[in-house]
Amino acid sequence: MISENRDAAELGIKVLKFGGSSLADAEQFRKVKSIIESDPARRYVVPSAPGKRFSGDDKVTDLLYECYSISVSGGEIDSAFEKIIERYNDIVASLGVDLDLSDEYVHIKWSIMHHAGRDYAASRGEYLNGKILAAFIGYDFIDPAAFIKFRDDGVFDAEMTNTLLSAELKHHERAVIPGFYGSMPNGTIKTFSRGGSDITGSIVARAVVAEIYENWTDVDGFLMADPRIVPHPKVIETITYRELRELSYMGAGVLHEDATFPVRLAGIPINIRNTNNPDARGTMIVPITDKYDPKTVITGIAGKKGFSVIAIEKDMMNSETGFGRKVLEAIEKEGVSFEHLPSGIDTMSVILNTAEIAESRERIINRICSTVEPDTVAVEDGLAIIAVVGRGMIKAKGTAFKVLKAVSEADINIKMIDQGSSELNIIIAVDENDFNRALVAIYNEFVG
Fold this sequence. Notes:
Strand content: 15-25%
Shape: globular
Largest sheet: 8 strands, mixed
């Protein structure tokens, strides 16, 4: 097996995933075919369901969810399902593909009406798009339901999947494997969370020991900041898995957060590319690198609103054994996880997601008071958290100073400062009303 895997890697196999915008209509299919055929190493392709063709259009997956909802409420799905049929038939006709999906439509409609399940309904978007793409580019079609497996508890079974899929793909020189879904032990369809085609692409890349996993979308790469807040942010040329994890957790988009784990395990890089601008280099996501841009130092900035802080004060807190553990246990018993723990000698603050404590706020406070008997406990809502991330920060002096300087000069009060022990990120909390201004100020300080 080891020698076979090495041989596969030496062949330079590339796995490609195309998002919904990349396969929204026939014209996009033609772009995808051109991309695939431009490099013989591009041997395995993972498609999403058709996305929106224009503002106000429907995503096919949303139409399928609608069909499911109508069905479980006892309604007729004919009208909603006809939109799906028209969408796919238009793609097939425009491409001139010799493919009749009539029997598939009948079976899918019947299955939805007879309660095959929400996951089954949603997965058919990728399934049908995979059928069309395979016929259009002349690749084999592989139904992932037979090879991508979940356990009885609904958790993805990575090792069984890798064993089954790796063995199957050895029999297919080139293949299309629809994204987003697999199957439970009883054979029923199970989907990943929304955007899960990213995960399927990563799974396939690991199974064939790919040289690279190309994730094709509608942007030139991973941006240094949210373009809805920061005008025309730069594209990140290279980012590590750890940096991506930090930025994704803080709300940065483009790639599904869980999609990195299968390829990260195998040490396979990811290349974020733009279907509509295939000549752009995109963003390389790599296991490790010591290279960085000394001009900017940072890799990216991201943030989220909707946080609360529980501030606890008690004299001689630092000498009280188990104080922090008891506070966190009080929160844990309500099934809530904490975000950050800034603290001082006689103070301890716990940053929490406001929505997660909506029903348990009073119980948490009461439990903290009865357990550790603090002098004061106060809760402040309306916080936003901003993470400044970069592997170059470890070697650069004055990074924290520049973050604080930028926010201060924007006349913004910082509520909390935290830096990870790895020096990979600096995190600050500000009032939600100052969030956008703080993000822009920090970006301009480092990038200009």
